[in-house]
TrEMBL record:
Pfam families tied to this protein: DUF2911
Region (Disordered) location: 24-49
Basic and acidic residues bias spans: 24-47
InterPro entries: DUF2911
Designated name of the protein: DUF2911 family protein
PROSITE patterns given in the database record: PROKAR_LIPOPROTEIN
């Protein structure tokens, strides 16, 4: 019986000591962290809709836009993939957002300095509604959109071009920011 108690005690002490120590070396832990970092970078690179950041000056003021850039891939966009009369995240994946270094004017209406998610409501005919929302860091775009956080809504007339652009782009250019995708050109006046 005493031998059984000794063996049992020794086994328990061994288990406790084994569970308290980390058998991995520092090199092993560093290797695992490096592998996780590499995996995260590869995931970012393999996004179907790459994350894009454009920065520039509008009327001498700093302006930045970040968005997921989807591709047409032969799909029917307007009225199908992007429905009419429904809030669209204006990009892919997480919500697109703008960052204004100073107060600016959008389509003649004041917008205070800060970060805003950017949404649009596409229309089959007539002007589209462009929305700046105070909840700028939305992981799932329009699925988390809440109208009560709208800071500014403006109407912008789209231009339909002859040539088609495969990937969505948002460029800081005259008259402020221009969104292009497929045959759409949506020039948003900012100053």
């Amino acid at each position: 019986m005493k031998t059984y108690q000794t063996i049992l005690s020794t086994a328990m002490i061994t288990l406790v000591l084994a569970s308290c120590s980390d058998p991995r070396t520092s090199e092993t832990r560093e290797s695992e962290v490096a592998a996780e970092t590499k995996e995260a970078a590869e995931t970012e690179e393999s996004r179907p809709s790459p994350l894009m950041v454009k920065e520039g000056q509008i009327a001498g003021k700093g302006f930045k836009v970040q968005y997921g850039s989807p591709s047409v891939k032969g799909r029917e966009l307007w009225g199908d993939l992007v429905p009419y009369n429904v809030v669209w995240r204006t990009g892919a994946n997480e919500a697109s957002y703008v960052d204004l270094a100073e107060d600016m004017s959008v389509e003649g209406k004041k917008l205070a300095a800060g970060k805003y998610s950017l949404f649009t409501i596409p229309k089959e005919t007539g002007p589209w509604t462009v929305i700046f929302n105070s909840e700028w860091d939305l992981e799932h775009g329009h699925f988390q959109y809440d109208e009560k956080n709208d800071v500014l809504r403006v109407d912008v007339t789209p231009v339909w071009e002859e040539t088609s652009q495969e990937s969505l782009s948002m460029e800081v250019e005259n008259p402020g920011i221009v969104i292009r995708w497929e045959k759409l050109k949506l020039p948003i006046s900012i100053n």
